[in-house]
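I am writing to request your help with a piece of structural work I have in hand. What I wish to show you is a protein chain and, alongside it, a tokenised description of its three-dimensional fold. Could you please explain, in whatever detail you think fit, how the structure tokens follow from the sequence? You will find the record immediately after this paragraph.
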Amino acid sequence: MKPTRAWDLLGIGVVAAVATWLLVRSFYGSLPPISVVAGGSLYPIALGEMILAFVVRSRIGGSRIGDGPQQLHPITAARAVALAKASALVGAAVTGAWVGFLLHVLPQAATVRAAADDRAGAVIGLVAALALVGAALWLEHCCRTPKDGSDDRR
């Protein structure tokens, strides 16, 4: 499986930013307020992926791969890679969505009270989405096999 490419994440983010900006520009008056909790909803997922990355990294680094206790099953590693790739794509899309939202809200924050109130939740959401992308890319990196040739044992 090929590693996630930065250009793919950037492309998804740009498309999401433009689409969100167009939608928010048209329907901002009918949107509910953005709370700080809504913006921070991705932090637990990013934290979970960071913890999983360190567990996977320690087991791969210690050559504890197999189906025994305290070992990392190869299927679990494959599932972790799939989770990392999916989370990176979702994080890129959500990052783009928050950027698009902020592109509409920030210029109006000085004159429109609702825009000023939505700014904090959107910034927290943007940071959470970036944290998810970073955690997903770190998890994907930790799932790589070592290059020291230790798999050549026979």
Remarks:
- The two ends are 25 Å apart (CA to CA).
- Residues 74-108 form the longest helix (35 residues).
- The chain has a mean pLDDT of 90.
